[in-house]
Amino acid sequence: MPSDRGAASAARPTTDAAPERARGRNLASGVLLGIGVAAFIDEAVFHQLLHWHHFYDRSTPDIGLVSDGIFHAFGWFATVGGLFLLADLSRRHSVQWMRWWGAVLLGSGGFQLFDGTVLHKAFGVHQIRYGVDLLPYDLVWNGVSVALIVAGALLLVRARRRGDA
Amino acid sequence: MPEHAASSAWPGELILAAVLLAVGGCYVAAVIRSRRRRPWPLGRTACWLLGLGAVYAGLAGSVAGAGGSAFAAHMAGHLLVGMVAPLLLVLAAPVTLALRSLAVVPARRLSALLRSRPVRFVAHPVTATVLNVGGLWVLYTTDLFVRMHANPFLAAAVNAHVLVAGYLFTASMIGRDPAPHRPGPAFRTVVLLVAFAGHGVLAKWIAAHPPAGVGAVQAELGAAVMYYGGDAVDVAILVILLAGWYRATAPGPRASAPSAGRWSPSAA
After folding, report:
1. CB contact under 8 A, A77 and B238
2. Per-residue model confidence as pLDDT tens digits over B119-140
3. Is pLDDT of A80 > 60?
């Protein structure tokens, strides 16, 4: 594998600043939008449609309120910022779709895993659902997160091998 | 709770309507004056008048005393006065209009005033955020909320603060008026996110700790109004702020890039 990757990077035409910057921006745009989408689905589906999550869970400690506020604001920034970055890449004709999608999956899986472990468990913001046995919900939630991360990482590796086409 | 504080007999609403009409009239008069030289976008005049309408809609109910009995209505009023109205008023670029329509000497005085240290200090994104979000924290975490409903003058002062601080905050983020020494978009974005989070945290804190005299159900409803309504306006500010960055970093000849003070959403 490493030799493979070495060959791919050697085959790359140049390593000047512009393509490097475009790669970083594709990654940043995808990860940000992935975080934003995960945060948005959390809010729209689980809070608003299913009412599984509660707006305010009476047992939420202060650290939970603060972290919820910060991630809520950051989720919006990630959505809007990720889209503007994508628009910027698009007007410069430098969107690398495979890398971008890989980053989206990585960002959404990463945020969901963070939400499912740190926010739900360590900070106790709220649980996935109330009045049920949480274990299967937690397993599915975090399992989906890991699957998204793995799929995103695979896409990113493929994008790198293909020489950023 | 002053539930039935004679709403029709209170002169506050009349005074408010008179002041807002006068302010709207000044703007329209300035537009007519400055139009002789250059046209002024109709959208800006519409923003100004809608913004004043939002101030009236937000205050007319709460000065009448609805604030105590219906906390969600109080919150909706605050949202209009502290967030929706400032956004519309800022987009109307009143300072630009004033500089354009005033005679040379008063226009110079105004621009000197805007460059003065105290004005620059309160118009800074960090100061404006502290005044805006910090003011709300003081209102809901002390007994100011209760006292404000017992004293109409205190209520008027609080509402004026909410409006002015909301305006300063919005202008510090996305103002279209000339703003010398304004920090760059990255700095403003970070401060905006802090304010955004501070607003959301306060909303949930209110749900957790209802102000005196407000029931748990009303408090949660009001908190949700504050949380989601605040989201809508903060996201709008964020989009306008980042759209400015997007515009300013457009590839191609630099010559056509708009200057830092003028970039903003469609100038309509």
Report:
1. yes
2. 999 999 999 999 999 999 999 9
3. yes
pLDDT at B124 (0 to 100): 95
How do the domains of chain A map onto residue ranges?
22-161
Of A8, A1, A6, the residue nearest A162 (C-alpha): A8
Angle value at C-alpha A84, between A83 and A87, nearest 5 degrees? 90
Tell me the mean pLDDT in the region B57-80: 75
Does the ipTM surpass 0.85?
Answer: no
Is the separation of the CB atoms in B169 and B131 below 8 Å? yes
3-state helix, strand, coil split of chain B in percent (to 5) is 75, 0, 25
- Chain A residues within an 8 Å CB radius of B223: 55-56
- Mutation target among B136, B173, B187, B201 for the A interface, most CBs of A within 10 A: B201
Terminus-to-terminus CA distance in chain B, angstroms?
45
Identity of the amino acid at B166: G
Q: How many CB atoms lie within 10 A of CB B46?
A: 14
SS3 A25: helix
- Check if the beta carbon of residue B159 is closer than 8 Å to that of residue B185: no
Which residues are CB-neighbours of B111 under 8 A, at least 6 positions away? B99, B178
Tell whether the model's pLDDT for residue B160 goes beyond 90.
yes
| Residue pair A157/A99 in contact by the 8 Å Cβ criterion | no
- Is the predicted pLDDT of residue B259 greater than 80, yes or no? no
| Strand spans (E) along chain B | none
Is B238 close to A56, i.e. CB distance below 8 A?
no
Question: Using one digit for the tens of pLDDT, what is the confidence trace for B47-61?
Answer: 999 999 999 999 886
Q: Which residue of B has its CA nearest to A93?
A: B251
**Residue-wise DSSP of B193-215:** HHHHHHHHHHHHHHHHSPPTT--
The percentage of chain A sitting over the pLDDT mark of 70, rounded to a whole number, equals: 70
- The pTM of the full predicted model, rounded to 2 decimals, is 0.83
